[in-house]
Hints:
Chain A is α/β, with parallel strands linked by helices and 131 residues long.
Amino acid sequence: MTTRVLVAKVGLDGHDRGIKVxxxxxxxxxxxxxxxxxxxxxxxxASAAIQEDxxxxxxxxxSGAHLTLAPLVVEALRAQGSDIPVVVGGIVPANDLSDxxxxxxAAVFGPGxxxxxxxxxxxxxxxxxxx
Amino acid sequence: MTPTNAYEEWRRxxxxxxxxxxxxxxxxxxxxxxxxxxxxxxxxxxxPYTRGVHAAMYRSRIWTMRMFAGFGxxxxxxxxFKDIIASGGTGLSTAxxxxxxLGLDSDDPMALGEVGRCGVAIDSLADMRDLFADIDLGxxxxxxxxxxxxxxxxxxxxxQAEEAGVDRARLGGTLQNDILKEYQAQKEFVFPPRQSxxxxxxxIAFTAAEMPKxxxxxxxxxxxxxxxxTAAEELAFTLANGFAYVELAREAGLSVDHVAPxxxxxxxxHIDFFEEIAKYRAARRIWxxxxxxxxxxxxxxxxxxxxxxxxxxxxxxxxxxxxxxxRTAIEALAGVLGGTQSLxxxxxxxxxxxxxxxxxxxxxxxxxxxAHETNVVNVADPLGGSWFVEELTDEMERQAEVIFSxxxxxxxxxxxxxxxxxxxxxxxxxxxxxxxYQLERSFNEGRRIVVGVNxxxxxxxxxxxxxxxxxxxDEKRQIERLQSVREGRDQSAVATALAxxxxxxxxxxxxxxxxxIDAARAYVTVGEMMSTMEGVFGRYVEVPTL
Lengths: 131, 546
């Protein structure tokens, strides 16, 4: 079955180079990728993920707001009864990793993560979730 | 009478140029000329300015070392500004936070988690006053990197300076105000393109009439490149946007010679050393030819492209961050050999966070080493005449001309219409994303090496650098401050100012700057001014494309 991924930009961060490149690299690996566009809220991302019935949500965060916004996306999904896993890509200082993990973020891809690493990690997260 | 040649003409121009005192010999004592070339070559200060806009270049004056700074509250950033001036920085450049860039007040629900993080939070005149406290705006030039709310920020700046006793006519500096590249690359847009362009028109007309030392638009390729374009795309898209602003001003009744000298440019300095130098040389040449040949400008100042350079943020690595000092030095040197008028050097830690004070000082010291130790400032356009660099310069120009033809075609002969149409149809955005993807693949496949990323990884696990941390405390303090400003102001003056702004925004013939300055004086907030205009102009929503 083809893995479906929703990639999203939450908040005010307009840097969309990374998310677009990653989206295409995931497509190259055979995944179906949906992009929300800019300036989304945690609620709009959660609704889109559920509506699109994706296997995973990827947030691209480059403005330093990850500790505030990523947990809100996880919460919004769980509040709607969804267990869709959430991963984060972008600039996340090492000190923040454990907080994101506690908040339910399944993986963080920092600068230098290769396409192969991302694809392998996503496949693993998605397969662990399958019943 | 013997006919004069280019060299003799240059000699005369050089002799009447301001001269910096200095020792113009090599380290071993060899005298060096201010420029080299055969007598019939093009020389610096000569049309089309491939070799530089001034005859004497850095023999007159070293570039402005303009370090971009902003974080936390206005008080925090004011402290950093003073450090920069004390360390020998010669210009200021303000980085605003995301909410400010998007015209939101710090207590807007969308601002959650973003206040003061990527720059300084400015909500009202009270913050602008703190930002420039004890800094003489009549003697230092100030650049403000802001686009969608550029007119609002200019209004706050003018109101603040006049309150401090500096007349608007004495204010020197630059407003970035380049909205076209926001839709194309940086994506900090608010209003739809045409309504945004009306505000750009208003700021161009206002500064042309009342602020003779002010650059109304900094036409920026920097963000286009950072978003992933090639060097030639950066060059061509930026100059096309510049042509569009000239056409916009012309439609508003301003002559080319009135507006062109007030446009400055802003380019990236990426890591491909010679290509970058060729890009700057081609930029000057193209601008000069188009201003004179196509737009029929008659003043030399209109033909001369002046530019600011910033080293490439995107070239910095989070891995082994100290090695970014070397990358930045190489990139900065390209800007200098390309004849930049001002320069910002990135700090080694900027792939991780906003720069720490120490990292920012090292970045400034990097410029000072280039300026004062290397002697590269003694000879203008030292690479002019290099077969390689001249060929690359020509190739940059050729590629840019192909792109201009395409944009002109979109606009049926109008660069302004072509740029807007290219944005609306996602053409610029698509090209930039495609170039970014191709480059990324070349890294992923190992065809290009990035040290510390896909090769030479030893040292990647070294201890982290101390980086600047912005806490949620700053956000809380800023929101409290904003709320006390809102409570302490004359509410009826606020209502009057906003009613006038809404009324005048609805009439495209009116210049909105006076209404915005009055609103600034009444402590109307950035968010209030922007949402009032949004009520009239509407909001732009980008169609997401991959």
